[in-house]
Amino acid sequence: MKCIKVPRRELGRIRIRVAPGYQIIFDGDFALIPVLEPQQGYEAVECSPAPKETTPKLRDLIPNVSSFYVIGDIMVLSPKKEIIKAELEKLLKLRRGVRSIYIRKRVSGELRINELEHVAGEKRTVTEFREGGLRFIVDIAKVYVNPSMATERLRLVKSIPEGSRVLDVFTGYGALAIHVARKIGYVVAGDLNLDGLYMARESLRLNSCRISMDLVQYDARYLPFREKSFDWVIGDNPTMINVFLQELCRVSRKFTVVYRLGALEEGWERVNDYSKDLVIAKRVIRCQDKDVY
Q1: Residue 135 forms beta bridges with which residues?
Q2: How is the chain split into domains, by residue range?
Q3: pTM (2 decimals)?
Q4: Topology (CATH) of 58-124
Q5: To which CATH superfamily is domain 144-285 assigned?
Q6: Looking at residue 227, what DSSP letter applies?
Q7: Cα Rg for the chain, rounded, in angstroms?
Q8: Is the N or the C terminus of the chain less surrounded, counting Cβ atoms within 10 Å?
Q9: 249 near 256, Cβ under 8 Å?
């Protein structure tokens, strides 16, 4: 096989595509770059590069896992069938940043709490992770955490102009609210889940002292705010949003952003695929429109 021989100190400045599946060889003061064809202006030499090491995919290691996500140093699996727990020790060795592994049985109750089974590593559910430059502390056994919505949260934050008065109705551990508050300076956030509000408070302390946020515990069927108190009202509760929509509209004077789990319909924007026939979709509502309800 051919390699391009270049001074090692110049490697960072040279733009040569490495042959797929192979690693660069380092030989004293020189680097040998495996290539599929000669590169004009560079010295080509014979070489025997080692194959590039690849990380096995999760489905190859554990075939019955349909999906997974990592929160901090905790991995949460959603298996299709029963998993042999001894196989999960492979994951702890493969993913060095993972210290605990749980199986998610289901999400239940009005607080949307994960029913979890510990299967490998340390038996704890509290962890810290980063999202969009912010730090969050969560207990995955006491609050719903959905890392797959991170991109959507950051995109929504960009659409909210500074100077807006914002209510994050189902804040959980403050995932969206703290991002919004960092941009516009102040936000009101609430939830029925008191544990989640304590986590939001701790996460707020981990970040900037310039971020201001009021945290309120309430039942979202009866929001403790006057009519049309907020420019933006955000309701991220996909399985029950229809129950609360009228109350969200009561306190909104401009825009109400809601998320729903179901089939994709006209007027709704796909955010995440949930299963073969179900998606999490978003709609931005002006509550005075006649077709809202």
Answers
A1: 130
A2: 2-46, 58-124, 144-285
A3: 0.76
A4: GMP Synthetase; Chain A, domain 3 (3.30.300)
A5: Vaccinia Virus protein VP39 (3.40.50.150)
A6: T
A7: 25
A8: C
A9: yes
**How far apart, in whole angstroms, are the C-alpha atoms of residue 230 and residue 228?**
6
The token pair at 56 is: 């096995």
End-to-end CA gap in the chain: 67
Beta-bridged to residue 137, according to DSSP, are: 128
d(CA 76, CA 67): 9
Question: Hey, what amino acid is at 98?
Answer: V
Helices assigned H by DSSP within 110-258: 150-159, 175-184, 194-206, 241-250
**DSSP for 20-55?**
TTB--EEETTEEEEE-SS--TTSEEEE--PPBPP-P
CA angle 118, 124, 125 (to 5 degrees): 90
Phi, psi of 167 (to 5 degrees): -120, 120
Taking residue 154's Cβ as centre, other Cβ atoms within 10 Å add up to 14
**Number of Cβ within a 10 Å radius of residue 46:** 8
Q: Among positive and negative, which fits the CA dihedral 237, 243, 247, 252?
A: positive
Structure tokens at 191: 């939830």
Per-residue pLDDT of the chain (293 residues; tens, 9 = 90+): 899 999 998 888 888 889 988 889 999 999 999 999 888 889 999 999 888 766 556 666 666 666 788 999 999 988 777 777 777 777 787 777 899 999 888 777 788 888 899 988 999 999 999 999 999 999 999 999 989 899 999 999 999 999 999 999 999 999 999 999 999 999 999 999 999 999 999 999 998 767 899 999 999 999 999 999 999 999 999 999 999 999 999 999 999 999 999 999 999 999 988 777 889 999 999 887 655 54
